[in-house]
Amino acid sequence: MLSVHLWSAISQRHWDSICNTVVHHCVVRAPFEYLVRPLHAHREPQGGEQAQSRTGTGMQMGFTCSHLSHQTPLRASSDSTAHVYQCTSAAATHIYSALFWAPPGVLQVNLITRSETHLQLEWSKVSNNNNYNYTLRFSNGTESSITGPDGGTTVIHTVSSLSPGTKYSFTLFTVFEGVRSTGFDFQYVTAPPDVTQVNLITRSETHLQLEWSKVSNNNNYKYTLRFSNGTENSITGPDGGTTVTHTVSSLSPGTKYSFTLFTVFEGVRSTGFDFQYVTAPPDVTQVNLITRPETHLQLEWSKVSNNNNYKYTLRFSNGTENSITGPDGGTTVTHTVSSLSPGTKYSFTLFTVFEGVRSTGFDFQYVTAPPDVTQVNLITRSETHLQLEWSKVSNNNNYKYTLRFSNGTENSITGPDGGTTVTHTVSSLSPGTKYSFTLFTVFEGVRSTGFDFQYVTAPPDVTQVNLITRPETHLQLEWSKVSNNNNYKYTLRFSNGTENSITGPDGGTTVTHTVSSLSPGTKYSFTLFTVFEGVRSTGFDFQYVTAPPDVTQVNLITRSETHLQLEWSKVSNNNNYKYTLRFSNGTENSITGPDGGTTVTHTVSSLSPGTKYSFTLFTVFEGVRSTGFDFQYVTAPPDVTQVNLITRPETHLQLEWSKVSNNNNYKYTLRFSNGTENSITGPDGGTTVTHTVSSLSPGTKYSFTLFTVFEGVRSTGFDFQYVTAPPDVTQVNLITRSETHLQLEWSKVSNNNNYKYTLRFSNGTESSITGPDGGTTVTHTVSSLSPGTKYSFTLFTVFEGVRSTGFDFQYVTAPPDVTQVNLITRPETHLQLEWSKVSNNNNYKYTLRFSNGTENSITGPDGGTTVTHTVSSLSPGTKYSFTLFTVFEGVRSTGFDFQYVTAPPDVTQVNLITRSETHLQLEWSKVSNNNNYKYTLRFSNGTENSITGPDGGTTVTHTVSSLSPGTKYSFTLFTVFEGVRSTGFDFQYVTAPPDVTQVNLITRPETHLQLEWSKVSNNNNYKYTLRFSNGTENSITGPDGGTTVTHTVSSLSPGTKYSFTLFTVFEGVRSTGFDFQYVTAPPDVTQVNLITRSETHLQLEWSKVSNNNNYKYTLRFSNGTESSITGPDGGTTVTHTVSSLSPGTKYSFTLFTVFEGVRSTGFDFQYVTAPPDVLQVNLITRSETHLQLEWSKVSNNNNSKYTLRFSNGTESSITGPDGGTTVTHTVSSLSPGTKYSFTLFTVFEGVRSTGFDFQYVTGLFLHVHLIPKKYKTMYVHAS
Asked: What sequence ranges are listed for the domain Fibronectin type-III (predicted)?
C-alpha cells in the first residue's frame, strides 16, 4: 500500500465536498494553521443502503455518494471506523474510504457486587452524556444493549445467569447514533461456590485434620480458612484427586474453634461455609483408687486443666462405657465403679470429653477385693488356746489368708492343697479372755474387706462360796470375783439341774447372789460355774441350809406411858419353836411360849412415855434364827402443862405452849367446847408451838382442851379458857387545832358505855380516857404540843383490861409565821423575794397570797436556810400587798403581811440621730411619757452620765462626744424613779469609719475593671461598699492578710466611663465616701473584610464598633508600625487602604478600637496581597486529546501554586515541582482539532493573581492510502 497526504491527492474543493457529505469532522493540515470545520450530524449507513447525497455549502462542485462497505482502517485511532463510499460528480467518479470519528469509550468499569451467578457493573457516563447508549459484548459474541438512566452520572448493569467461579471477558462499547466506540475491554470473575461440607479426619489436642470435596472438582480453585479471631490460612488443593486435606495446628486442647472456609477463584471469595470443630481435650495424668470393696472401685482424679466444662467417659475392657460429670466445685472428680466381680483385675480407659470429643484416653488397671470367708467355726477351746476352722473362699486354692488380732498382730495362713476347709490353732492365749480377730482373704496382695469374729478362752473356777444371809426362803451367797475380772459372769446349778445366771457388780472384788423361793429349813447342794462370753469353767460344788419361818403378826393388847403388852400366834403352831425379842438398841429377850394354846403373850415394861419402839421377833430352831418379824408400837405421850395467850385481836386468839418433852415428833389437837377440833403441827425448830384460833367473835370467852398426839396416840388432855379483844374506833376527827393543841372527837365503839379508851402517843406516853355516860361521842383535847409538828397516835378500846388492836391516826399543829420577807431584785414586771426558812424546817412549804386573793404555792429548796421566790407578770412601778403563809402538811400559819414596789420600765428604743467619726447623737422617747423619770447612760467601761429630760416634749436627746472613728460602742440606758433603776436598755452604735484616700486601676478589659486600694487604717474588720452612679452597690470584704483590697467590677459595658463612690463600712456604718471614675476598654471589631487587593495594596473595611462615631482605631503591623484611623462621621463602616505592600505576601495585623485613649484588646487578622501573573505559557507538545504546557515559576517562588481555568469554567489545581524554575502541565481528555481558551492564575495562600489568558488547539492529521486496483481508493484517517 502507498500512503500519501490527501492534500496532494485531491483538490481542496473535492475534500470540502466529502467533508460536508460524509464525515463528522475534517481536520486539514495547512502549512501554518489548523482549520477546524464542524459538519452536520451523520448516521452510519447500514449494509448497502445509500448515503444521503449532500452538497457542500458554497462549493462549486457537488458529489452523490453511496455506501459500499466498511472496514477497519490501516491506521485508525482507538475511536474511529472506516467506511467505503462511491462518490460521483460531473467531473469524475471516485471511490473513497472515509473515516468517521466514533464517540469516546468508557475509562473504567467497576464491579459493585458479585455472586455465583451475577455481576453488578457500574461505570461513569461517557462525557456525562445522556444521549449515549452502551453495548456489552461477551467473549462469545453475545451482546446486551444498555440504556443509562436519565439522571445521575453513572450507569449500573447486572449481568445474570452466569456460571459460578468463572472469569468473564467483556467489551463495553459507547454507542451514539449507531456509532460505537472502539470498546473498553475488561474481565470479572463470578464468586465461586462454597464447599458443602467440611469433614474432620483426625484430631488431637493441638490440631484438627480437615477434609472437603473440591468445589465443582475444579483444580483452579483455592481456599481460605478464616478463624473466628480473623486469622486466615491460604490453602491450595492437590492437582489430582477430588478432595482437599488441611491440618490446622498449634491449637489449644479441649477448645471449640469456629471457622469459615472460603472458596477462592482469581482472588474472589465465595460466601463462606461456617463450621466448628473441637480439639481433643487432654488426658488425665493419674487415676487414684480411693476404696475397693468386693463389688466396686472408688476412683478419683484431678480435673483436667481444672476445667468444669470437661466431662469424662470410663471405658471397660469389654467396651462398656460410663459417662461421668465432675462436680461444679473442687478440683477432683470421684467416681464409683459398681456391680463388679470380687477378686477380679479390671482394665479401664478414662477419656476426657469436651463437646462430645474424647481425649486419647488414659489406661489403668485395678483389682477388686476378694470375697471374705462367711463363717469361722470354733473346734475346741481351753483356757490358753482356740482351734479355728473355715471353708475355703470360693473353694479356691490360690487364695491365702491373714488372721489379724485386735492388737494388729497378724498370722499368715496357707490352706491345704486338698479339701475344702482350712484349720488353724491360735495358742498361748489368756484364760477367760475374748479375742477379736479379722480374717482376710488375700489375692495378688489385695485383701478382702475382712471377716470379723470373736472367740473366748475358757475362764477359771471360783475357789470358795460363802453364806452371807439365809432367811426362810433364800440363801445369800458371796464369792471372790474370778481373777478379779468384771467381764466374768456366773451360773449357779441346783442339784435338780435348775440353773441361775449371775452377773457380778461393776465395782468391788466380790459377787453376792441370793437364792430365793426355797423351802424353810432345807439343805441345798449347788455347783457354781464361771462364765465368760457364754463359756463355762469346770464348776465349784458346795451346800447350805435355809432358816425357819417368822411370826406373821404381833398384836398390842394394852399400852400406857411406860409399858406395852404384846401377843402373837405360835409359828406353825409348833411348840418346839422358841422366840427372841430384839429391841432396836440390840437388847434381846428370850421367850418360851406356853406348852398349851396357840398364842404367846409378853409384856414390855419400864418404857419412856410417848416413844415409838421398834422390835424384831425371831423364830429360833436348832440355833438358827428366822429372818425376824419387825414391828413398832408407841407409848402414850404426856400432856402440855400450860397454854399462853400471845395476841388476841377481835376475831382470833394466838396461843403458845412449850413443846411436850421438847419433842418435835409430837403433834397436837385443840378441841373446842362444842367438840370442834383443830390438828396442829409444831415447827421443826424452837421449843414452843404457836397456833392462832381465828373466825372468833369479839369479846367472847372460849374453853379449849389441848391433846398431845404421837403416832396417832393422844395424851389425857389439858383444859384452858381465853377471851377475844374488843373492836377499835373507826375514825378520830380533828375539831380544832392551834400551834400547841389538837381537839379530837370519835364515836363510842359499839355505842357501849362500858368501854374505856387509851390514847397512846408515838413516844409511848398514854392517856386513859373515859367517855361520858350519855351521848354517842367522846371528845378529848391534846395540849402542850409543838407548833408545825405532825403527831402520830394510837387509840385503844379497853374492855375488862383487854385492849383492841388500836386505831392509828395523825394530826398536825399549825406552823409558825415567817418574821421577815426581803426584796432581792425588782425588774419592771416581777419582784424577787427572799425569807428565812421557818424554824429552818425543810418540810415547811409556803403560800403567797396577793391582795386580790390570788395565791402562789412555794416549795423551798432542800438545802440552805432561805427561800427565794419571784413574783412575775406584775405591772411596772406598782406597790403590791402580800400575805405569806407557812404551810405544813396542808396546814397554814396565821400569815405574815408585807408590801413592795416594782421597778420603772426601760426605754424601748434609742435612735441614732447623727453620727460622725467622733460623736453619736442619741434620742429616745420619754418612758411612759413621764417627766419625773430621769435617766442614766452607762458606757461599757462603767462610766455613767446622768441625764434629765426636758420638761416639755415626748423625747430626750443626748450627744455622746470625744469618740474614736470606726468604733462600736456598747451602752446601757437606765430609767430612774425614786432611786430605783430599770433593768437597763442595752444598745450599740458605731462611729463612722474613715474614707479610702485613693483607688487604683489594675486591669480593664471590655466588661470589667479591676480596682485596688489600701485597707483603711489597715483594719481587717472594715468592709467596703462600691456604689455605681446609678445607685447599684457591691459589698466587698477585704482579705484577712495583706494591706490592700482588690475588687473586680464585672458585667460592664465596653468603652464606657463609670463613676463610683467607695464607702468604708464598719458594723453596717458607712464612711462619707470616696468618689472616682474609670473607663472600660472599648470592644474589638468582630471582622475586618478585604474589599480589594492588588499586588501592592489591601483595601480593608469593618463595621464601626457599636456604631459609635466617638471610637477611633489604630492598625498595628506585625513589625510594630501603627496607623491611626478616624472613621467617617456618617455611615456604619470604616474603610482603610494599606498600600506600598509586596506582591504575594501574607500580612498580619492587629486592629485596636480606641476610646478616650484606651485601646481594646485588639482584633488579629491576616490578609495576602495578590501574587504576580505568569508572563508566558508555552506549548511543548500536542495530540488529538492533550496539550502539554510549560511556564516559568512566578518570582521563582516554590510556595506559589497555580489554577488553570478552561473557558467552560472547569479548573485544574497545579502544584509546581520543588526544584527547577519551570512548571509543566499536561491538559488531557481533550477533543481532537479543538481550540481551547485558558486562564492561568498564580495562587498564594488561596489568593489568585489577575490571570494570564492564552489559547491552544488540539491536532487532527489526515492521510490517504492508495490501493493500485481498477479504481482509486482513499482511506481518510484522522490522527
From this structure: 103-194, 280-372, 458-550, 551-639, 725-817, 903-995, 1081-1173
Q: Coil, strand or helix: which one is 19? A: helix
How are beta strands 34-38 and 64-71 bridged, if at all?
unpaired
Query: 573: which DSSP letter?
Result: G
Contacts of 177 (CB under 8 A, 6+ apart): 41, 42, 43, 44
| Angular region, 219: left φ>0, alpha ψ -120 to 50, beta rest | alpha
If you search the block for the grid coordinates 458529489, which residue do you land on?
63
Strands (DSSP E) contained in 303-450 are 311-316, 321-325, 332-337, 345-354, 357-358, 362-367, 377-381, 386-391, 400-405, 410-413, 421-426, 434-443, 446-447
- Please tell me the predicted confidence (pLDDT) of residue 471: 79
HEC per residue, 1190-1226: EEECHHHCCCCEEEEEECCCCEEEEECCCCCCEEEEE
Cβ within 8 Å of residue 39, ≥6 positions away = 19, 20, 23, 24, 25, 26
- Give exposure, 355-384, as e/b (b: 16+ Cβ within 10 Å): eebbbebbebebbbbbbbbeebeeeebeee
CA distance 1134 to 1023: 47
Angle at 689 between CA 686 and CA 692, to 5 degrees: 140
- Which one-letter DSSP state was computed for residue 698? T
Q: Could you tell me which residues are beta bridge partners of residue 241?
A: none
> DSSP state, 862?
S
Average pLDDT over residues 438-463: 91
Instruction: For 126, list phi and psi in degrees, rounded to 5.
Output: -65, 125
What is the structure's pLDDT at 1260? Answer: 55
DSSP secondary structure string for all residues of 947-973: E---SSSSEEEEEE-SPPTT-EEEEEE
pLDDT in the model for residue 101:
54
Cell of 619: 423364830
Question: Phi/psi zone of residue 140: left (φ > 0), alpha (ψ -120 to 50 degrees), beta?
Answer: alpha
Q: Are 215 and 194 in contact (CB under 8 A)?
A: yes
Q: What is the pTM of this model?
A: 0.36
DSSP state of 926: P
624-633 pLDDT, tens digit per residue, is 788 899 999 9
Q: Are 1238 and 58 in contact (CB under 8 A)?
A: no
State the number of CA atoms in the 13 A half-sphere of 947 facing the CB: 22
Q: Which residues pair with 454 in a beta bridge?
A: 436
What residues have CB less than 8 Å from 833, skipping those under 6 apart?
A: 821, 822, 823, 824, 848, 868, 869, 870, 871, 900
Give residues with Cβ within 8 angstroms of 483, minimum separation 6. 431, 432, 459, 460
How far is 1173 from 1170, CA to CA, in rounded Å?
Answer: 9
504-513, 620-629, 1068-1077: segment of lowest average pLDDT: 620-629
